[in-house]
Amino acid sequence: MYRLLVSFLLLSIVVSAETLELLWPDLQGQIEEFEDPFTALTSDQLFELGMVARLRAMAADGDKPLSETNQTELGEKTKSLEDAGIDIDYLLEKRAEITEMRRQRAQAVREDLDGQKIRMPGYLLPLDITEGEVVEFLLVPWVGACIHTPPPPPNQIVYVQASTPWKVQGQWEPVFVEGTMKTGDITKGLFFVDGSADIHIGYTLESALVTPFEIKK
């Protein structure tokens, strides 16, 4: 009996060691580092740059010249940026490239997590509730994600299929999930009172164990 108990404890330790305890930053994949010149701008400067881009586009595409008001605004915004030493033409030229690099960074997942047994906390956002219970849900990193705020990037959303129905206590209920992680882009429809939206997801947990959120002491 003693040997059996010791063997069971050792097996439990091995199984526990194989389960990766993850937090949300751990889900972010890596891409080649790139210089993002827009991060050096203040929110006011980003707004001014956007206005310059829009007014320049209006001037280039319009059938008639800009109005006097728009011309004045274009001149003021341009001068403000140039006085701050900002190269407007360079930034507008780099805009599409930086946008694409940001998109890649937001979608990059950790391929080494594919097939790994993991455990992590998050907030439960039900996809479908039946008699107060949920089997399919999104695990998200903050309260309000996908409904009251824009959805997180795909590598910050986990689609979860629970092994047994989970009694929902409320929207964005904090829980732990445990199961085998799968990587790969999927899309799920999220339905609201006034419409619906497609949510792009980078990770999946199938037959996952769901437990209440409790901080280990």
List the helices and strands and how they pair.
Layout: H1 2-18, E1 20-21, H2 43-61, H3 68-83, H4 88-107, E2 117-126, E3 129-130, E4 133-140, E5 158-167, E6 173-192, E7 195-212
Parallel strand pairs: 1-2, 5-7
Antiparallel strand pairs: 2-4, 2-6, 3-4, 4-5, 6-7
Helix pairs in contact: 2-3
Protein model, in words:
- The protein is an alpha+beta fold.
- The protein has 2 domains: 21-29 and 110-212, Protein of unknown function (DUF3299) (OB fold (Dihydrolipoamide Acetyltransferase, E2P)), CATH 2.40.50; 37-107.
- The chain has 4 helices and 7 strands, in the order H-E-H-H-H-E-E-E-E-E-E.
- It has a 5-stranded mixed beta barrel.
- A hairpin with a 2-residue loop joins strand 3 (129-130) and strand 4 (133-140).
- Helix 2 crosses helix 3.
- The longest helix is centred in the middle third of the chain and has 20 residues, at 88-107.
- The two termini are 31 Å apart.
- Residues 1-16 have low confidence and may be disordered.
Main sheet specs: 5 strands, mixed, barrel
Q: What is the CA-atom radius of gyration, in angstroms?
A: 24 Å
Quickly count the helices: 4
Shape field? elongated
CATH class of the largest domain: Mainly Beta
**CATH superfamily (homologous) name of the largest domain:** Protein of unknown function (DUF3299)
Helical coverage, percent range: 25-40%
Number of domains: 2
Instruction: Report the mean per-residue pLDDT as an integer.
Output: 85
